[in-house]
Description:
Elements: H1 2-20, H2 22-32, H3 38-69, H4 74-93, H5 96-111, H6 119-128, H7 131-142, H8 147-169, H9 171-209
Helix pairs in contact: 1-7, 1-8, 2-5, 2-8, 2-9, 3-6, 3-7, 3-8, 4-7, 4-9
Amino acid sequence: MAGDFLTVFTASFVTFFVLIDAVGVAPIFASLTARGTPAYRANMAWRSIVVASIIIFGFAFCGAWLLEQLHITIDAFRAAGGVLLFLIALDMVFEKRTERRETRADEYLEEHEKPDDVSVFPIGIPMLAGPGSIATAMLFMSQSETWEQKGAVLAAIAVNMVLCLIVFLVASPLVKALGESVAGAITRIFGVILAALSTQLIIDGIIGAFNIG
């Protein structure tokens, strides 16, 4: 039983770690909160994590019910989720995702001269609780057969949220230490890993849908 929990937790943790990409979001968070005081930055870090957690956990718990109401099979959702994650992986490898995040951050800074609440938008949504992380939470919970597996998925999400909080709290010095080139390299590596995981999801979905093997 412990081995089963660890296996599901590891797979879930890696997937959410790549999708949420705390290291990639950190420079955006640092730029959006640069004009505020340390207390303001800490407050935004906590609030953004709370907002993102509520959204992701909400979809994780209600995902199975939503699929049932829409008459969508788990295999179909697994394959569709794999395609979505693969597209995100391509964006990460070619850094399109980072460019869009920076564009949203620049537009927000142009519209708001004074520090404002950025915890809900754009940090909480869509940078942390984006389509990829929401769909993955629904996918992993819907394909978990036991409460032990569901607990592993929820634990993986919670640990990732805690890691995001830590990264946000030290975002400014972390960004300076890493530099843009290192952060870009890390994002590309995560993209390759996510591409492999998403491909496996597509294969599993096709096999299940057509009863292959």
